[in-house]
Write a sequence for this structure.
């Protein structure tokens, strides 16, 4: 079955597409070596052998204006076919492409991993439309994804590591529909933890055309081989002063209409960017280590958010880097914060090594106890699994 129809004169690009889907995506590619774009979809589809394709790739080599015109007709007559334009990144082109119903824009020189992720996403969209599960015309309220804020009152507790592994794990549940957002605007480390060199950053995503259209915003996301997207922080900490809470809130709303999961790595404390994230969040992951200052800080954070009426209904408490020799127990932590602990991640050299290598431990299969605990956190967001009931709060302890 040819799930992909490619119109191009570039044999090298065709080979990259073939390599991208080989053994990873069901189906094959049918190529039309003709860069002359027909006036109607019927003229093009008459040349298809077998069933209609799920994804139509236009280019490289096609006339962009002709491609936009044809895509607009496809969107009306064949909305179940995802149209992908192969062209250089350009915000104005992205805006025009979104308006005519093009699913994504792919760089002609994109690496094989990037091609695969984008094609998987296009297939997912096509399949969903065919099943009637998702409609592009549906109200945004029907297409809201889960916005998960990972937060901690203090730094140094492995917040970025937990957020990155959570996103990687959710990417296995919802490939191409999970995005990790770095909101530690001044000193964020998501790019380093994922071993990414972002072409665009948060500054691009909250301004200009990206703030007006989700299609443009998507072009500013970095693609990770684990089938997730990431939005990284600017290189200069000074850029944080030019990003305000309203911009953050609006951007998170945009992402929630496009992705099933939006995972946010917040900055320590309760600055304006973190508060904007918590206001948009459907879930919050509270993180603490097993030290007295950290646990007391978490209790204060929960109390403050409760007073501000900013506690999301779905809350998950994680004790990270747990160590039996710390002098504290999980029961001590629960008694102090007055809420049960949901996940305990033990201290692990494997996690430290994977973080330093830029490959989160959940990216590959691992028998490490910390990896198992992090998988348990991911499972709490898996709609196919049920979460065990919360435990009762244990005895009050000396931490208070």
């Amino acid at each position: 079955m040819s799930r992909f129809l490619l119109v191009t004169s570039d044999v090298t690009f065709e080979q990259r597409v073939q390599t991208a889907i080989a053994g990873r995506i069901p189906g094959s590619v049918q190529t039309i070596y003709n860069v002359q774009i027909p006036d109607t979809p019927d003229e093009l589809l008459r040349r298809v052998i077998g069933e209609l394709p799920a994804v139509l790739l236009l280019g490289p080599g096609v006339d962009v204006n002709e491609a936009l015109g044809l895509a607009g007709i496809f969107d009306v007559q064949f909305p179940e076919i995802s149209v992908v334009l192969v062209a250089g990144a350009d915000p104005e082109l992205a805006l025009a492409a979104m308006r005519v119903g093009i699913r994504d824009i792919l760089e002609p020189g994109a690496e094989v991993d990037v091609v695969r992720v984008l094609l998987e996403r296009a297939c997912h969209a096509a399949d969903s439309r065919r099943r009637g599960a998702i409609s592009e015309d549906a109200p945004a309220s029907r297409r809201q994804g889960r916005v998960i804020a990972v937060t901690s009152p203090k730094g140094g507790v492995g917040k970025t590591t937990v957020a990155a592994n959570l996103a990687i794990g959710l990417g296995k549940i919802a490939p191409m529909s999970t995005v990790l957002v770095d909101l530690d605007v001044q000193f964020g480390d998501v790019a380093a933890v994922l071993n990414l060199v972002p072409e665009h950053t948060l500054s691009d995503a909250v301004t200009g055309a990206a703030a007006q259209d989700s299609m443009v915003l998507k072009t500013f996301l970095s693609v990770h081989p684990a089938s997730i997207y990431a939005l990284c922080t600017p290189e200069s900490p000074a850029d944080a002063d030019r990003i305000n809470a309203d911009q953050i809130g609006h951007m998170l709303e945009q992402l929630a209409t496009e992705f099933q999961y939006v995972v946010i790595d917040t900055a320590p404390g309760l600055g304006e960017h973190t508060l904007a994230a918590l206001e948009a969040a459907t879930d919050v992951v509270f993180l603490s280590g097993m030290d007295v200052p950290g646990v007391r800080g978490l209790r204060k954070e929960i109390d403050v958010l409760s007073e501000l009426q900013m506690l999301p209904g779905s809350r998950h408490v994680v004790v990270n880097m747990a160590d039996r020799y710390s002098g504290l127990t999980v029961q001590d932590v629960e008694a102090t914060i007055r809420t049960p602990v949901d996940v305990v991640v033990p201290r692990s050299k494997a996690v430290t090594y994977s973080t330093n290598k830029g490959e989160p431990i959940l990216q590959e299969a691992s028998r490490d106890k910390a990896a198992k605990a992090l998988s348990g956190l991911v499972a709490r967001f898996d709609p196919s699994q049920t979460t065990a009931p919360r435990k009762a709060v244990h005895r009050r302890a000396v931490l208070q």
The longest helix spans residues 112-131. Confidence is low (pLDDT under 50) at residues 133-142, 387-400. The two ends are 65 Å apart (CA to CA). Residues 82 and 153 are 43 Å apart (CA to CA).
